[in-house]
Amino acid sequence: MKVRADILRTYQTLHTWTGITTSLLLFIGFFAGALVMFAPEIDRWATSPEKHMPAIEAGQYDELLQKVLQAYPKAADNVTLHFDKSLSPVSWYEHGNGRGLALDEVKWHGTLNSDGELVTQLVPVNTLSAMLDMLHRTAGIIGEIDHHQAGIFVLGIAAFAYFIALVSGVIFLLPTLVKRFQSLRRDGERKRFWLDGHNLLGIASLPFHIVIAITVTVFAYHDLFYGGLSQLYGDKPLFPRNEPSKIERNLADLPKVSELVAKVEAHAPGYAVSYIRYGNLTKPIASASVGVVNEQQLMRGALNDYVFINPYTFEIASSSAAHPDQNIWAKLVSTFFSLHFGSYGGDLGRWAYFLMGLAGAGLFYSGNILWLEKRRNKGVKQTRSYKVMGALTVGVSLGALMGIATVFASNKWLTLMTESINQAYLFLYYMSFFSVVVSAFVYGPARTAIYGLKLLALLCVMVPVTSFIAAVIPGTDLWTPNSLEAVLVEVVSSLFGLFFWLLSKHIVNRALQNEPGSIWYLKESTMTSEISARHSV
């Protein structure tokens, strides 16, 4: 396909600058987002099994709920029944509400023992997955704008620019798309390999990236979109509102849990109830939010669909689950959210999104490296922009990885030292992140990458090593994985460690062979001599 040269240059310039200005933010968002695909598994891995209460039989939930409401009247405001056997059968917040990243939330967990007696314990909420989700949505940018995290708006702008980069990149790649799509040229200049790899990652996952770019932009600025629509609707509400009930509620009139489950399952055939969250049970505004799962459907939430129902009358207020009466707009919204969250296809779908998220992070990193390779001058002297972008590329990407790995490696040890584990998570992440960024500017990208990747690999390996220590020294109060999902968290961490260790060895070789002036080149120094000595042995 032939396209005029001036048009190609225009789109190439547009692609380059929209990509280079957003890539590092998107790198953090994509890598953290890949991990968030397994948020429930990560939280269970990060929490001692002693904090979870034993499961009960399906027929015991009515008895459990009544005993909780009698012993803890405050639970009537917000209490959740969990039907997932890996979670405590019932929980409610003593402090907090489970929305966003709250560092001081405390939650009651409860179950019934073998004698049918209520057993409870108060547990601080572990927010490891919530912290990862915060990084995914904000790239770690601190601050608020109008009670919203500032990073959400910044990442929304980055996502819009990212969409422009995708479109412009496809256009200027069209003339050579068929010829170069599956080629990875290792001969000739190094930038050819980076160019081919970058193009392969981008084109192979283009639909995924388009979906993510559009959905992130809409998620970030949906309030503005609604505000614009309100100018058309005037005083008429955008969404239908039911008149608030004035009927006084009595807990003695609360129908059985099994009846509510049957009503929801009849409303949404093929779905299984995963939880029921009761709210304001003693007030006229009593409600129940029911999580329902059907892996064969595109689900509205990250883990499930929702059915909002009156727990006393069983009147359904709204539902995102696929059902015979669902209108086209509800289906479109569910599809929109589901394509971003990857909440379809079960575990296979989650693993696919996990891998595509990692590939997306690789796409942004390779784009920056390609920019640096193309703009490197011959000789030692380089422009300031080249040096700054080189330090930022290594510092920000490696810093984000180091921060996340530090939190995972220290998780179980933190439980022995502090009750404020969530504050410790944030402190360790930002301390590690900024230490690597500063190192990249002070010691240079190459040296920071070599030593940083080795440390990163050790941190990843510390995750299973900690479990090994817990197994051989039981008195440490550490714990070992008690489920396949927890084991997989440690296996994946070990694979990351192996990858980062091999990558550090690759950069060592590259530092010895590269030309002066490259960000990967090391001047004659003690470190260079040590590396050369090792290779000559």
Strand order of the largest sheet: 4-3-2-1-7-8-9-10
The biggest beta sheet reads:
8 strands, antiparallel
Estimate percent helicity. Answer: 55-70%
Detail the poorly predicted runs.
Answer: none
User: Count of DSSP E strands?
Assistant: 10
Helix/strand/pairing class, anyone? alpha+beta
Q: Give the CA-based shape.
A: globular
User: What integer is the average pLDDT?
Assistant: 86
Distance between the termini: 53 Å
What is the beta-strand fraction? 5-15%
Radius of gyration: 26 Å
| Count of structural domains | 4
| Number of alpha- plus pi-helical segments | 16
Please write the string of helix (H) and strand (E) elements. HHHEEEEHEEHHHHHEEEEHHHHHHH
InterPro entries: PepSY-ass_TM
Transmembrane segments: 20-39, 152-178, 199-221, 351-371, 391-411, 423-443, 455-474, 486-503
Keywords: Membrane, Transmembrane, Transmembrane helix
Protein name: Peptidase
Verbal overview:
By secondary structure, the chain is α+β, with helices and mostly antiparallel strands. The chain has helices at about 5-35, 40-45, 60-70, 130-140, 150-175, 175-180, 190-205, 205-235, 255-265, 330-340, 345-375, 385-415, 420-440, 445-470, 485-515, 525-535, and strands at about 80, 90-95, 105-110, 120-125, 145, 150, 270-280, 285-295, 305-310, 315-320. The chain is built from 16 helices and 10 strands. The mean pLDDT is about 85. It holds the Pfam family PepSY_TM. This is Peptidase. It comes from Pseudoalteromonas rubra. Keywords: Membrane, Transmembrane, Transmembrane helix.
